[in-house]
């Protein structure tokens, strides 16, 4: 879906399809350079990271393997609970691997901070994080994030994987919703 398909629900477009593609390509270039010759496992966090994972993986010029995890930190609302539960675990043994966690967004950082600690406990060679979006003003914990697409204001966003009540994930851009959608 593009912005015309959801015109009535939209407040504004934050990043267009083209802006996202360009930024993802830049991140991929850095990742290729930083990990050259290493055994890299991309760990996508379901469901939000599906789009960024698909585009980032294809923009890389290095071999990588991919695996997925699903964790829950949110209900259907828009507030982070800080309670993390594994809904789907990895199938890959992390021992000795260079892990790159791929996320859609870092809000409070609580999910990522928990996930990072959890993955480190499995004996990988390294764990780094790549996120398309980050909300610096919403941070409740400090996490070292090596690859950030865009820092955004503390506003709820949808599209390119990100949902509101499971909708809007298939927008090809990132935007904010009009107030009437939440009511
Ligand atoms: P955190 O634990 O607060 O950092 O939240 C992490 C997860 O909450 C993200 O991976 C998203 O799935 C979801 N989330 C946080 N902010 C937004 C948003 O603005 N729109 C949609 N989902 C969000
Ligand atoms: Mg997520």
Number of discrete helical segments: 4
- Structural class comes to alpha/beta
Got a strand count? Answer: 9
Mean pLDDT: 94
SSE sequence, one letter per element: EHEHEEEHEEEEH
Catalogue the ligands. inosinic acid, magnesium ion
Most strands sheet: 6 strands, mixed
Query: Span between N and C termini?
Result: 23 Å
Describe the structure.
The chain is α/β, with parallel strands linked by helices and 183 residues long. Helices cover 23% and strands 30% of the residues. The protein contains 4 helices and 9 strands, in the order E-H-E-H-E-E-E-H-E-E-E-E-H. The strands form 2 sheets. The protein has a 6-stranded mixed β-sheet with strand order 4-3-2-5-6-7, with helices on both faces. Helix 1 packs across helix 2. It is globular and about 50 Å long. The protein binds inosinic acid (IMP) and magnesium ion (MG). The site of magnesium ion has 5 residues, from strand 5.
Salient structural properties:
4 helices; binds inosinic acid; six-stranded mixed beta sheet; binds magnesium ion; 183 residues
């Amino acid at each position: 879906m593009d912005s015309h398909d959801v015109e009535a629900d939209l407040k504004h477009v934050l990043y267009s399809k083209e802006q996202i593609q360009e930024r993802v390509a830049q991140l991929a270039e850095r990742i290729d350079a930083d990990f050259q010759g290493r055994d890299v496992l991309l760990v996508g966090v379901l469901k939000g990271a599906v789009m960024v994972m698909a585009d980032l993986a294809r923009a890389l010029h290095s071999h990588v393997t991919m695996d997925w995890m699903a964790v829950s930190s949110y209900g259907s609302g828009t507030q982070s609970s800080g309670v993390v539960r594994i809904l789907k675990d990895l199938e890959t043994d992390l021992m000795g691997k260079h892990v790159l966690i791929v996320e859609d967004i870092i809000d409070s950082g609580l999910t990522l901070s928990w996930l990072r600690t959890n993955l480190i406990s499995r004996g990988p060679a390294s764990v780094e994080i790549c996120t398309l979006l980050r909300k610096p003003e919403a941070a409740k914990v400090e996490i070292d994030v090596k690859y950030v697409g865009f820092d955004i204001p503390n506003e709820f966003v949808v599209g390119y994987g990100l949902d509101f009540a499971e909708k809007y994930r298939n927008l090809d851009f990132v935007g904010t919703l009009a107030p009437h959608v939440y009511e």
